[in-house]
Amino acid sequence: MDGIGPELPLSKDHRFGAYSLVLNYEDEVKQNFKILLMTSPGERMMDPEFGIGLRRYLFEPRSHSKTQIEQRIESQVRKYMPFIKINRLLFDNKRDEGVIGDSSLLTIRIEYDVPSLNLSTSIILQNEDIN
Fold first, then answer.
1. Domain holding 107: CATH number?
2. Residue 14 is part of which domain span?
3. Could you give phi then psi for residue 99, rounded to 5 degrees?
4. Where are the alpha helices (DSSP H) in the chain?
5. pTM of the entire structure?
6. Which ranges in 39-115 belong to alpha helices (H)?
7. Cα separations in angstroms, 122 against 43, 84, 89
8. Which of 23, 43, 97, 111 is positioned for an S-S bond with 88, CB 3.0–4.6 A?
9. How far apart are CA 22 and CA 3, in angstroms?
10. How many domains in the chain?
């Protein structure tokens, strides 16, 4: 079976040639979405607008950054991944709301659909994924 694209970060895998490959469209969309979330604006050559830059929101008070993050995700998805329909963005989905509600730690769950693939899934990013 041929792959769709390289699996990032690159790792050696001689089953498909030199590197591991993404084998299905669900994983490819998720990988590309994560790249969009993690890339800081200005980081991608020739396209300084690309990226959400979640790292800059680490340790920011949630009350100040939640709306900014939501708006940035929605506008970037509209521009760069218009085939994705975002259903919900959940922040800090841990149980202890009294502590986590205004925490400086960042946890985001994004539930989304890809109608062209008949796909409904989610991506969860936590501090250790973003940092």
1. 3.10.450.40
2. 5-130
3. -95, -45
4. 25-38, 62-80, 97-100, 127-130
5. 0.84
6. 62-80, 97-100
7. 25, 11, 10
8. 111
9. 6
10. 1
